[in-house]
Amino acid sequence: MSHSNNKTEQVLRSSGVDVRKCMRCGKCTATCPAFDEMEYHPHQFVYMVEKGEIEKLAASKSIYKCLSCFACVDRCPRGVEPAKLVEAVRLSVIREQGQNHLKTDSIPAMLDEDMPQQLLVTALRKYSK
After folding, report:
1. What number is the average pLDDT over the span 10-38?
2. Over pLDDT 70: what percentage of the chain?
3. pLDDT tens digits for range 56-91
4. Are 60 and 39 contacting, i.e. CB atoms less than 8 angstroms apart?
5. How far apart are CA 105 and CA 121, in angstroms?
6. Which pLDDT belongs to residue 129?
7. What angle do CA 43, 93, 74 make, to 5 degrees?
8. What does the alpha-carbon distance between residue 40 and residue 37 come to, in Å, rounded to a whole number?
9. Distance between CA 51 and CA 44 in Å, rounded?
10. d(CA 44, CA 57)
11. Please, which residues have CB within 8 angstroms of residue 91's CB and are 6 or more apart in sequence?
12. 60 phi and psi, to 5 degrees?
């Protein structure tokens, strides 16, 4: 299996999205409030993941322009969830860059009196692996 296939499988697995359900109606893109800012729109994300074009998506600023508002998810008549694909690609990029790690030494600088301690415990569990 090639590197591209591995990345596609990883994105599909972590998102839980079945891209084959997409019928290319474009309703997800029509409802997207970040449409004008995105190089690749929600319906294109679905199609590109299906075609294994993860590297193109990973290099695109579109993964950071998505608001994760899930309007595209709500609008889809087939239950495809484009925003989850965007998040999965974004997460794969962050993991590859090693930016998803939290070191205990960096926690004191993040603290303020309004921050719930549970947030820190959860973040440390999630981002220290």
Report:
1. 95
2. 90
3. 999 999 999 999 999 999 999 999 999 999 999 998
4. yes
5. 14
6. 58
7. 30
8. 9
9. 10
10. 10
11. 14, 100
12. -85, 145
Residue with tokens 């309004």: 114
Residue type, 97: Q
Per residue, the 3-state secondary structure of the chain, as one string, reads: CCHHHHHHHHHHHHHCCCHHHCCCCCHHHHCCCCHHHCCCCHHHHHHHHHCCCHHHHHHCCHHHHCCCCCHHHHHCCCCCCHHHHHHHHHHHHHHHHCCCCCCHHHHHHHCCCCCCHHHHHHHHHHHCC
Q: How far from chain centre, in Å, is Cα 54?
A: 12
Rounded to 10 degrees, the C-alpha dihedral 21/44/42/100 comes to: 100
